[in-house]
């Protein structure tokens, strides 16, 4: 079970800052019960805005992170998917309000890097590089240019063909040019 996302809870400190990822203005809630939307859990005015915090959360949820990577986050524009992800987030301790999240902004800012790199964990076996690969695959599938990765047999056949071609060229050259440099092994 993942630790609750503390950054989304109320804290008894106030202040303003920019989101550490997208630069959106954030307010740390100075008074419990105030209407401030951002960084409710911060113990100091530093961190991610609520949209980046939600993205930060879902990028650690396997296998949803792979599925989301394939659509560059666009799956999150589906209201049904939003509810599904939100239920998961709440199960993991997020206590922000669903209405506070701007899903369109999450998708629009999908490619911005996070201050911390995604790491493998007990809950998440994929790295940032693997998410990037999934994203590329999704793009290629949508564009109709996706090719299944080569099987071991295909790879070996292609490798053998390249070797044969290389040897063929070498063979021709050794016949065309009888200088000693080209007669190695012959
Ligand atoms: Zn942000």
Question: What would you note in describing this structure?
Answer:
With 186 residues, this protein is mainly alpha-helical. The protein has two domains: 138 residues, no CATH class; 31 residues. It contains six helices and two strands; from the N terminus they run ββαααααα. A two-stranded antiparallel ribbon has the order 1-2. The protein is elongated, with a radius of gyration of 26 Å. The N terminus is likely disordered. The structure holds zinc ion (ZN). Zinc ion (ZN) binds next to helix 1.
Helix content: 40-55%
Shape: elongated
Largest sheet: 2 strands, antiparallel
Q: Which radius of gyration do the C-alpha atoms yield?
A: 26 Å
List the keywords.
186 residues; mainly alpha; 41% helix; 4% strand; elongated; binds zinc ion
List the helices and strands and how they pair.
Layout: E1 15-18, E2 25-28, H1 50-58, H2 64-70, H3 79-91, H4 103-108, H5 128-143, H6 152-176
Antiparallel strand pairs: 1-2
The structure holds zinc ion.
Question: What's the gist of this structure?
Answer:
The protein is mainly α and 186 residues long. Helices cover 41% and strands 4% of the residues. The chain has helices at 50-58, 64-70, 79-91, 103-108, 128-143, 152-176, and strands at residues 15-18, 25-28.
């Amino acid at each position: 079970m993942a630790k609750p996302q503390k950054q989304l809870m109320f804290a008894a400190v106030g202040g303003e800052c920019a989101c550490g990822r997208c630069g959106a203005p954030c307010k740390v809630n100075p008074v419990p019960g105030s209407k401030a939307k951002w960084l409710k859990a911060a113990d100091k005015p530093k961190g991610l805005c609520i949209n980046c915090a939600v993205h930060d959360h879902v990028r650690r949820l396997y296998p949803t992170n792979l599925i989301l990577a394939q659509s560059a986050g666009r799956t999150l524009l589906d209201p049904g998917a939003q509810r599904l992800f939100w239920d998961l987030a709440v199960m993991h301790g997020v206590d922000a309000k669903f209405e506070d999240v701007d899903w369109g902004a999450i998708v629009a800012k999908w490619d911005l890097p996070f201050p911390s790199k995604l790491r493998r964990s007990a809950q998440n076996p994929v790295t940032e590089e693997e998410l990037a690969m999934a994203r590329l695959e999704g793009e290629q599938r949508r564009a109709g240019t996706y090719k299944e990765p080569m099987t071991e047999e295909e790879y070996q056949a292609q490798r053998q063909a390249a070797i044969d071609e290389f040897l063929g060229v070498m063979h021709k050259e050794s016949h065309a040019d009888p200088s000693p440099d080209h007669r190695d092994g012959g």
